[in-house]
Amino acid sequence: MRHYDTRNVRTELPCHNGAHSPPSSSCSIAGAEVEPLKLLNVLGVIQKSAEYLAKRGVDSPRLQAELILAHILSVPRLQLYLDYSRQLTTGEMDRARELVRRRGTREPLQHLLQSTSFCGFDIEVNRSVLVPRPETEILAEKAWQFLKKNFAGGGKVLDFGTGSGCIAIAIANHSPEAQILAIDISKEALQLARTNAEKNKVAEKITFLQSDRFTAIPPESKFDLIVSNPPYISKEEIPSLMPEVREFDPILALDGGDDGLIFYRYLVKEAALRLNDGGKLMMEFGDGQSLTLQHLFGKDGWKVDSVLEDYTGRSRVLVASRR
Ligand SMILES: C[S@@+](CC[C@H](N)C(=O)[O-])C[C@H]1O[C@@H](n2cnc3c(N)ncnc32)[C@H](O)[C@@H]1O
User: Fold this and answer.
1) What are the tens digits of pLDDT across the range 214-260?
2) 167: Cβ below 6 Å to ligand 1?
3) Alpha carbon distance, N-terminus to C-terminus of the chain
């Protein structure tokens, strides 16, 4: 599934300053007021921060601590190893405390850094959009390869549920002649997607449209490619998502209805009416949904062309065309 697991969330004791603290130790990194401010060197900050994050159930705590510190010091992470004994300034310590405290509440690193990389493009993120996931890069890549091969980098494309705009932006960069319509129900997501498109210099190639499903798309519009990473978590699973996902990704981006398949059922019918001859539908899906989706599309006039695996070997993307 999209980055989550079913681990229990730890019970945490808040420090008296409001920051969360491990039961008996100090809050020397994340709770500035608890101890007299001690200036640490790079290694000290990494060690204390990693300890703090580990106690709060954060995955790869040392890596996370290093990434936070590298961000604060504006250096590549590996540079930290060469600067272990460099003393942090008071301002840098304050910033480190604040970001490590926030990461300890399970706020995703990408939110702290306010951006992430998707297919090599810098994508700004906030609470209105799903943080783009590495596995979605497979979908974007398959999309631009299809356009290159069949439409010489052009073609009409619909990105359904564009969120941060990551897929549309990657496609626009790799298929410069493509005309892309990127839709989302969320006005806030579209605002950020537009900003991301501007920053990546593809704004003029993408039309952003607020639309609940396909309702705002002109009836005569048809596409050579429909891509989508729709919400696909079942309602039942949402409470067991990792806090980073459950509490910080928008529910609109997660909730795929009672069985997680609501948007695929919609696409089975509606995408069929919106594809040009020779067109393709490419969709990301969640763990355990592959066979159900192949069946769903197979019995309703679609041919499943391929199912692609992500970097971890899980089936992740379905490519289909009309029979
Ligand atoms: C899983 S996120 C994918 C975001 C982005 N495409 C990505 O891959 O990172 C799904 C997106 O679908 C949007 N969405 C949810 N319901 C929708 C609806 N009824 N109509 C259009 N978009 C919808 C959400 O707002 C969210 O941005």
Assistant:
1) 999 999 999 999 999 999 999 999 999 999 999 999 999 999 999 99
2) yes
3) 29
What is the pTM (predicted TM-score) of this model?
Answer: 0.89
Nearest Cα residue to atom 2 of ligand 1: 253
The domain 115-322 having CATH identifier 3.40.50.150: the answer here is yes
State the DSSP code for 201: T
- Alpha-carbon gap, residue 85 to 98, rounded angstroms: 21
Hey, what CATH topology would domain 18-107 get?
Answer: Helicase, Ruva Protein; domain 3 (1.10.8)
d(CA 109, CA 130): 13
Residue 84 Cα to ligand 1 midpoint, Å, equals: 42
Contact 162, 207 (CB under 8 A): no
Q: Is 256 in the pocket of ligand 1 (CB under 6 A)?
A: no
DSSP code, position 234: -
Domain regions of the chain by residue span? 18-107, 115-322
